[in-house]
Design a protein that fits this description.
Helix content is 77%, strand content 0%. By secondary structure, the chain is mostly helical. The chain has 2 domains: 188 residues, Growth Hormone, Chain: A; 202 residues, Growth Hormone, Chain: A, CATH 1.20.1250. The two termini are 28 Å apart. The mean pLDDT is 83.
Length: 417
């Protein structure tokens, strides 16, 4: 009982913003189920072919990537709360507008514009999360936010599936209203922490020791671990993205017409593990530094794909997804707070956008490269490439870890106390 209490008590005493952001993320992602349904909307509701649907979703993703870059620049020059509120209001209007048009390219355009403003708001949201919380508590803040994201998504996915066939307009309205609700919470209860309100031992000098007028390029030159982190995130995304791309294709290859259903069960099991094990792994690994966590997470990604390389029985896929999901949780715990603890508030938006570009680049290249390999070679070839990318990411993270202790020694001195 005491151990169970410890799992939840570890989130006690965080900044008030941490709990508001947890609730906000849960509410937002409870309504954010339109994107996972997009392929079905494009094919079943609008009538596009699978290839046309792939082109459409890729175009929207690139559209969002541009939005994230612009949003990162804006987030460092204007009030972040105002950016979030304005962009969320615009995206809410366009989400709800989708409910009043028939499934068509016009609907997709409206949805694309809504998502564009949501992606432009992303860097400001990430930066505000760091601004409103203390450096030392950041890992638990991101852990709690990650938990809220998955709790909301779990309920939202079920709601989306129920509404898709007969009540698709309600899905768009629900998406818009949940976004609006979380925005109100941020407006009323989330405020940046002032440096003068922190105790001396709560101040992280790396968040406030760079001239706000220096360029992002100059900042990366002064702090090379951040530069290399871009490539580590891209490689990690290359591997992580394959659980939603090559894995369902492989399961259809192995299990035939039962493959999609089996993959659906695995996806639900993934969500269950995330929700039940995130507090446990946060507590157990609380004394492990962030970059070793990120290394362990990506290594588990790679090992999970090695486990299924030779068409194993279905039960082995559950072991595979357990290992993979542990990797997902641990990597998130290690990598999410990384940039915020090493970048001043004046540059967080732009660095958040750069990390977003790294992730998007890795995920996009992953689909293109592995898709080409699957078309031309047996699956083991693709999986060996995925595993190799994973261990290459581990090696790069190990190098960054060595550099990191050189450029940010006080972060490790504090952790050792």
């Amino acid at each position: 009982m005491n151990r169970l209490q410890s799992l939840f008590l570890q989130y006690r005493g965080l900044s008030r913003a941490a709990y508001i952001l947890f609730i906000g993320k849960m509410i937002t992602h409870m309504g954010a189920f339109i994107w996972p349904l997009m392929t079905l909307i494009l094919t079943q509701k609008i009538g596009l072919t699978a290839l046309q649907s792939a082109y459409a979703t890729t175009a929207i993703s690139l559209f969002y990537l541009v939005g994230g870059i612009v949003g990162g620049k804006i987030a460092d020059h204007f009030d972040r709360k105002k950016i979030i509120i304005v962009f969320d209001m615009i995206s809410t209007i366009f989400f709800i507008a989708c409910a009043f048009v028939k499934p068509s390219l016009l609907m997709i355009m409206l949805f694309g514009i809504a998502g564009l403003f949501a992606s432009m708001e992303g860097p400001a949201y990430d930066a505000l999360t760091a601004d409103a919380t203390k450096s030392a508590e950041r890992e638990k803040v991101y852990s709690l936010g990650y938990l809220g994201h998955n709790l909301g998504y779990m309920f939202g996915a079920a709601i989306g599936g129920l509404l898709f066939n007969e009540h698709l307009p309600l899905a768009f309205i629900f998406d818009g209203l949940t976004t609006f609700s979380s925005t109100i919470l941020i407006l009323l209860f989330v405020h940046p922490i002032r440096r003068e309100d922190l105790q001396t031992d709560e101040i992280n000098e790396y968040e406030d020791d760079i001239d706000k007028n220096i360029s992002t390029f100059e900042l990366l030159k002064k702090r090379p671990p951040l530069f290399f982190m871009f490539f580590a995130i891209a490689l990690s995304a290359f591997v992580y993205n394959q659980w939603g791309f090559s894995l369902p294709l492989y399961m259809s290859h192995v299990f035939g017409e039962n493959g999609p259903a089996y993959y659906g069960f695995l996806s639900s099991f993934n969500a269950f593990i995330v929700i039940s094990c995130t507090p446990v792994l946060t507590f157990l690994l609380r004394n492990l530094a962030g970059l070793p966590k990120a290394m362990l997470g990506v290594a588990l990604y790679a090992v999970s794909f090695l486990l299924i390389i030779h068409q194993p029985p279905y039960l082995i896929f559950y072991i595979m997804i357990t290992i993979f999901t542990f990797g997902e949780i641990i990597h998130t715990l290690g990598s999410s707070p990384y940039v915020s603890q090493r970048v001043p508030s004046s540059h967080r938006g732009r660095l958040s956008a750069i990390i977003m570009i790294g992730y998007g680049t890795g995920a996009t290249l992953s689909q293109l490269i592995i898709g080409k390999l699957i078309d031309n070679y047996p699956y083991p070839v693709s999986f060996l490439v995925i595993v190799s990318a994973g261990f290459l990411a581990v090696a790069l993270l190990a190098y960054i870890y060595r550099l990191d202790k050189k450029y940010f020694p006080k972060l490790y001195q504090k952790a050792a106390k």
